[in-house]
Design brief:
Blueprint (H helix, E strand, L loop, with lengths): L7 E5 L3 H18 L23 E7 L4 E10 H7 L8 E2 L1 H4 L5 E9 L8 H16 L3 E9 L7 H11 L8 E2 L15 H6 L3 H8 L3 E2 L4 E3 L4 E9 L5 H7 L7
Parallel strand pairs: 5-6
Antiparallel strand pairs: 1-2, 2-3, 3-5, 4-7, 6-10, 8-10, 9-10
Length: 253
């Protein structure tokens, strides 16, 4: 139980210890809590890691009153992806429309919050730090895979169909799943919208509030025990209200 109100700092990991702290939180959430795995997961050390980690920037939100890492985000600019040989999500999605757009791209991934900090201000600081990063690097389009827990699309028919019918990206931003899992599993008129929203993870709902879109088709990731969708956010399409939410009330992206 926390006795002092948390105070947060946001930074990009600059040391091996900070990277391991991010990987440790990812292990707690993605492996222990959600049952995920992967070829490079270090169960003995409690680290969730993969071959892309050296190329990403790793954003950490830390509660400075306790030293606890409250949240992390993994960020890969297009110039970093060139060094890695690909974007992480290219294993699941055809990103041709984004890569040929000539716009500055940023891939987001591995976003998670420590259980003790969910529903509080940690996510606000994560978003605020992301807004600063986007401004500093002149990013125009953000994208990344976001996940539903579980690998049975029929169990997720309502939220997947809601995303397809209401938030499909325009053609110039519409990436497509390679191992194509249709998302239009329920007719638009038959959607249970209340259930769909309840079953949609908070991170995906946050992107939708900012005017985000989804790519065409989902992808089943058995290693992580998830059903993935690709979220795309075009900063040029954000209206002023959305821009203020995204930038932490400062009125800029």
């Amino acid at each position: 139980m926390q006795h002092r109100a948390p105070e947060f700092s946001v930074k990009i990991a600059g040391t091996e210890a900070e990277l391991r702290a991010a990987q440790a939180l990812r292990y707690e959430v993605f492996v222990r809590e959600l049952g995920g795995g992967g070829a490079m997961v270090d169960h003995a050390a409690g680290l969730e890691q993969d071959r892309f980690d050296p190329f990403f920037d790793h954003m950490l939100v830390t509660d400075t009153t306790t030293g606890t890492v409250a949240g992390v985000y993994r960020l890969l600019r297009d110039d970093q992806a060139a060094k890695a040989g690909q974007f992480y999500s290219e294993d699941e999605y055809d990103l041709s429309v984004l890569k040929s757009s000539g716009r500055r791209l940023l891939e987001l991934g591995r976003s998670c919050l420590h259980p003790d900090y969910r529903g509080g201000m940690a996510m606000f600081h994560l978003w605020s730090g992301l807004a600063d990063y986007v401004e500093a690097h002149g990013i125009e389009v953000l994208f990344g895979v976001a996940s539903f827990h579980g690998t049975d699309p029929q169990q997720l028919a309502n939220p997947l169909s809601m995303l397809h019918h209401g938030h499909l990206a325009p053609p110039e931003l519409r990436v497509r799943s390679k191992s194509f899992q249709p998302m239009d599993l329920v007719e638009k008129d038959d959607l249970d919208r209340k259930r769909a929203m309840l079953e949609t993870p908070a991170l995906i709902k946050a992107y939708l509030r900012l005017g985000g879109f989804v790519g065409e088709g989902a992808c089943i990731d058995h290693a992580f025990n998830t059903t993935d969708v690709c979220l795309i956010l075009d900063t040029a399409r954000m209206n002023e209200r959305q821009r203020k939410i995204y930038a932490g009330g400062r009125g800029r992206a």
